[in-house]
Amino acid sequence: MSDAPLRELHDAISSIHSEIRHEGSEFDFRYSLVDHLFTDALDWSRTEGEGHVNFEDDRKDLLFYDDSEPPFPVIVCETKRPSHDLDLDDVEQLETYMNGVGSARFGILTNGHEFRLYEYESENREISGIDGFNVDAVAETNFENLSEDQQNALGELEYLRRSRYVDFGDAEYFRETYQEVPVQYQPGTDDEGYELFLEAVKNSLDELTDVLKVFFDDYRDRDEGSYPKEFLDSTFPDWKEWREYTGRSKNAKEAFCRETAYIILNRALFARIAEDKEIVGHTRLSSRGMADELERDEARPYLDALMDTYDRIDDHYPDLYELGIFDWWWVAKDKRGQFSKTERRKQRDLEDDLNYSLSKVLKRLNRFNFGYVNRDILGHVYEDYLPKQERKELGEYYTPLEVVQFMLDSVDYRPNEGIGRKKVLDPACGSGTFLTEVTERLIQHFLRKFNKNSIHALNADEARTILERVEENVYGIDINPFAAHITQINLLFRTIDLYDKVTEKDPYYTMDGFEVHVADTLTPTLREQKSGSSDAETMQSGLEQFAGYNGRAKSFIEDRNAVDRIKDDVEFDVVVANPPYVRIQNLSGMKDIYSSHYASAIANFDIYVPFIERGVDWLTDDGKLAYICPDRLVMADYAKAIRDQLVEEPITSLIDFKEADVFDVPTPYPCVFTLDREQVVEGNNVRCARFAEKNDGVLDKIRHLDGWRTPDNAEGYELFEYSQAQLAEDNQGTPAIWKPMPDDERQVFNKIEQTADLRLDDVSKDIFVGMQTSADKIYIGQIRESEEDGLVEFRPGGEEDYYPIEEKILKRVLKGNEIHRWKFDWQGLWVIFPYSVEGDDVKPIHQERLKDQYPNAWEFFTEDEREEAIKSRGNGALRDSDEWYAYVYPKNLDKFDSDKIMLGVLRQEPSFVPDTEGSYYFVGGGTAGGYGLRLRDEYAPDAPDTLYFGGLLNSRVTEFYHKHISFIFNSKFYSYGQTFLEPLPVVLSEDRKRISTIAGDIRKTIETITELEVRTDNISNYLPSYEKEWTVLDLAKSIDLSDDDYRQDPIRTNDKMEVSSEKVYQVVMKRGHTIDFGNEQIRDFVFMLLKAQDKRLGRTELLDLATPVPEDVVALMDEYQSDEARIEELEQEVEQLQDELDDLILRDVYGLDDAEVEVVDDFLEVW
Prior knowledge:
This protein is of the alpha+beta class. The chain starts with a helix and ends with a helix.
């Protein structure tokens, strides 16, 4: 090594030495190290670009990146403070860091006095020392006098020079960076190699998607008759239909190109994994193979290498690498011969762009070592990298392994059972979650049978037996070709070691392929169409025209025909699935087809319903089925027909997960049910479970229980049995739903039904939803007083300004979340109501009358932008009407002014509120609105009768009953929609007057509480009773306010002790800005007064706020605190009154004894 760079390194060490103080900080030393050695001498940058050093990492002191895409750490430096003596713990810490990083070859350990250099051996995951030197000795020795060992040690620092890690030529890059970073997915560990791999996947997918979108646009724009255009025009609509089937039709081009990118990346990734695991020979995608390809200087080496790898690995795994519809971008040589000169140029330009993107993708993959990769790596990659919303868009719901294992155990598909020849089907296989576990269990079954501990202990014939059983007996169908592709890959990873064993004996062995198919599970086959009423022509794909000469189209058609054979001729021993959850309204054109073929497809059914019917039809005479689907199966109107079908089969279990939070994305609460045709229906008891909270690992415990009963130490779940005959009877009752519950609850439930004289539907004149303005931000808002009689100032919810408007055109309005048990939490909202109501006759106010009697309202409506927004409601439904300002959906407007009971739609407890004066209107709409009910005159002729029914409906009896028949949502919110209100039990009790009296007392007490809460909500409400002769400045003991602008609210109050032991009470406006007071009540008054202001305050404004004199402030605060105490007393009174009411209804009205009351209390404590 020449003297110049060595001298430069010596100068750097000397400069560091001169700045080190023994008592100095590690941080200061680190800066010197970076400045002098790494930046000045070794040429590293502090900013990203062409090799940079980062010292912002939370754990590793210095990381050096090569700034590839993504940047890879290539050196790790662990620094210690100069006063710290380096020891073995420090070496082990560095080794741990380098194991985590994975890609770094060299590591440094230094405290400024010692400098040690280590090399990382990725195969052994260990570091070994290269060299080191004493910094003090080197720095204090003149360069000319350095010993040979010192010079050699300094020379080793050249391993750290930036130029060694950047600016590679492409061929050199593939040779030098091959298998640098080990990838081993280990849940719960800090694996930076895996994190780098995720980042590489992300960047690769983004880049491939972008270039494929260019392909897409170019192909669509080509002349008629162009082969790429015609093939894409046939492929894309078919794919789009599949996407619409699952209710996801937005961004179709983006999604199509992204799924194509996944396929390309999946294949490249699998080839690299197979290569690193030495299952196939070296491909042209990495290391020497790619380097040699690059040195041949072909036009598109990366694209050529990719397609060559497709051909090579297709010999082993034809299903995975056979070209299909996601290879729409590829044009074979024979088709290129048909191109014009212009089209050849376009194709060449596109493939140049793809080649460039592939260069970056393959460079990234080259750096990873997949030799020890977990077989589940792809599943983890997509689960960890993809945002939840994107996974949802791709139709990927990952059924947790714990649930999958529980379901397979429930149908006796275990390794220790006779499963060797059982045929298993997942008719909605998605990414293959069930099928991979089925395959794993089948492998374990044969390992036990062959008395072997692992696949590696098998001989070739035994491995071939297992592999062929998987190929023959494990079936999957999915409408999404991308999902089916992922399933193929996952199954391939599960069986790859078996294939490796087989090829030890027969190197030319080729797999037949897995029975995984792309098709709509529910569409009738051609045979079924001919025997039914469906039109066979409507079921054909646009790809039919290419089947004669395009292998990709032919493959698709053959796959569809294979599924027809499966539907027509194959029966299965086990059917297991997590079918899609899509309401039929979201499917275009499929409702009639499904409804004509499936007896269960009634009303606005969800797609999982015919999936259940199809699955049952596939079963052998002794077959078993396990499905996980929405718990709406148990209660929904549209599922009644499938419930009737299921009770004709032996149902073995019904597991309602409720609050267990099974999936990691928002979905309806799921349930699992299983059938077993080896059992009989008559006398059958169904094993049931319900979960009140998330409980990780509980399913594993349950599946290992000796009997089906709740363990004594169980938390958050119950196990019980329920008669299948009772399920069948339930579905014919009122309401017509399944009602699985423990025996003691069923006895109470039955007693309630037997005691009830009527249902709520019998005593109700109508049950109605709230009003819909279709533009709440315009029609609903707040008001303040106006100086002009008959007017108020109205501020719409979507604006900040106030507008004069006639008070008579406004109505008080409640939103759903303002309706609570017995009371309104009215937030002061009003709705513009442009209607005249006379009895049952409701008409919009005519335009001329509106202009004449409500000119301010007319002016409000006709403001330019607002008028257009109003006319645009409901797709312009009223645009051409004279009364365009009326509501688009004017339902139930005659009902609000009458005696009624209101309630919120989605509640954790009953929220019935009698409105005997008809004072309030309320909004409707989904789960955020309200419902109202009006009682028949013969049952509720006056207000006390309304209060009586309010008491019944708000009771614990009704709550208990309702929660057994209603939909449940997240956090134990229940639906109070009309379907679940009408069946509620009603008793015409002799205790009617007592109940009405207690209900009236509750309502009056709550009204008093509400009045007090309104008063105590703002301290300014107390001021009119007192003269305001002082200011905040007068009340203050001392002031420390230096700004002239303070937020609306002070941030807190503080107490502190002065040196004199005198207590001081503070209002803190913001950090360091305080006002001190000598009296706690005065401090609290000022704090609340400032919080009540509706604007930011300057210092002078704040201090000049008018207040009562100190004695009156104390009196005011005594009054305020008395009101607060009174609220607490009244709330206790309400609780006591509600308890009295509940006890009266439980015991006297329904005749429940102590044990039965305890059942109700125990249930409601949980639910």
